[in-house]
Amino acid sequence: MEHLEQQTPWAKDCMDRQRVAKFLTRHLDQSPHIKVLNINSEWGSGKTFFVTEWQREAKENRVCVYFDAWKHDYTGDPFVSLVATIKDQLTDQIGRSAKTKKTLAAFTKSAAKTLLAATPVIVKGLVKKATAIDAEDLAIATEGLEDLPSDAAEKAIEKLIDSKKEALKSVEDFKKVLLDLLAEAAKNKNSDPIPAYIFIDELDRCRPTFAIELLERIKHLFDIPLCKFIIASDTTQLAHSITAIYGNGFESHKYLKRFFDAEFELDNTNMENWVKTVFAGNYRDSWTAIALPLASSDNDRHAFPSEKRVNPDQNTIAHNKTNKLNARQVVILAMLYTFDPQLRELEKLVSQIQAFEENCAKDSFQFFWAAYLLFLKDADRNLYRAFLKGDEAAKSVEGKFPSMNLHFGDSNSSIHTIAGWYLRCHRSTRQEVRNFLSREQGASFISEILNNFYNHYAQIKLYPALVDLAHRLD
C-alpha cells in the first residue's frame, strides 16, 4: 500500500498544490494565447515538487515532457538537450510501430537541420564559409562591396539571402514535424486534441547564458499550436544573474518577460496543512511527546483555577477543536512562524529533528529544545553559538526573530522565553537546577522544564553536540 501511495501523484501534497495545478490546467487549455507559463517562486518554495507532480498527473491523459534544465547546463546548445529529452520521453509515449519510428526519425533529422541552420554560432561559420565574410563583421564588409567586382558582390548577397531563407524553412519544417510527433503521441493516449505540456524545471540554477539561450529556442523554435511550456524558476534571482553578466544598465526583468505569456506565483503563506501532514498523528496521543505541558484552548478551563487561567491571544498558537493540531504541530508552527525558514529548509529541518530523536532515549527526549536549537542554528549559526554562551545573546535572538507564543493554560509564553529556561538549565549544574526547582513558583511549563532537566541532566546536556551532528544532514 505504501509503495502504491508513493506512486500516486500528489500523495505527498501538503500545500494544496493539486488544486492549483487543476486551476492552471483549465486556464491554459482555454487560453490559446498562452504558450509559455512561468511558475515564478523563490528558491526552496516547492517549485520542483509542484511541476513534477503536475506532470505525473497530467501525463495520464495528455502528452507530457519533463526537462530538468540544471542537469543539462553543462551541455553546449540547450536546443540539443531539449530535443533529445523530447525524443526520449515521447518514445515511451508514442509506441513503437513502423509509422511512429518514421515520425521519430523525421523529428531527429529535422532538428539536426534546424540546429545547423538556425543556431547563431553555426550560422556565423556557414556565412563565413560561403561568402568569406564573418557575420559579426557583416556591416563592415558590406560597406566595401562597392569595391568588389559587381558579380562577386551580388553572389555574396545572394548567398546571405539564401542562407537566411534556408534557416527559416528549416525552422518551419521542424515545427511541422514536432506538431506531427505530438499529434501521434496524443493518438496513442486516445487523447482528445488537448495541448501537450512541456515542463522546464530549475531554470534559475543554470548559467545565465544557457538559460537565455533555452528561452530563445523555446520562443522561436517551439511556437506551435497545442503545445504549452510551463517553466519553473525563481525569475527574480534569474534576472539578477543576467544583470551580473550584461551589466546594471541591462533591464533583465523586462527582457525575461518577453519570453512569458503569463506568470503564476506559488503561495507559501499557509503552512498549517504542511505541518499537519508531516507531523501527523492523533493529537490526544501526542501531548506527552514533547515534555512540555501544552494546553488545549478548548479544555483547559477546568485545569486551572479561574484566577490563574489565561486565554490564548492573537500571537499564540494553541490546539483547539477547529485546527486539531497535535503537540508537535503546535511547536513546529511556532518555530516556523518565528524563524521563517524556506520550505526546502523546513524539509531539511524535519529530517534533522528525526535523526536527533532517533539518538535520544524516548523517556527523556525534549522535542521543543531540540527543535528550537536546530531552527536557530539553521537561521543564524553565529547567533546560535553566542546563544549557548549566555543570556545576552538570547536577547539578540529575541530582537532578530520576533516570537510566537505557546499556550500552557496558565500562561502564553514566547518560545524564546521557554528556550531561555532550557538555556539556564544547560548552563547550570544539576544541583543548581534542583535549587531552581525548589524555589520556582512560576508558570507550569517552568517546573516541567526544571523537572525534566534535573531527572535527565546528562542526556539533555548533550543536545548541542547532537545538534551539531544533525545539522550536517542535508
From TrEMBL:
InterPro entries tied to this protein: KAP_P-loop, P-loop_NTPase
SUPFAM superfamilies: P-loop containing nucleoside triphosphate hydrolases
Ranges for domain KAP NTPase: 32-353
A matching Pfam family: KAP_NTPase
The name this protein goes by in its record: KAP NTPase domain-containing protein
Organism: Pseudomonas lutea
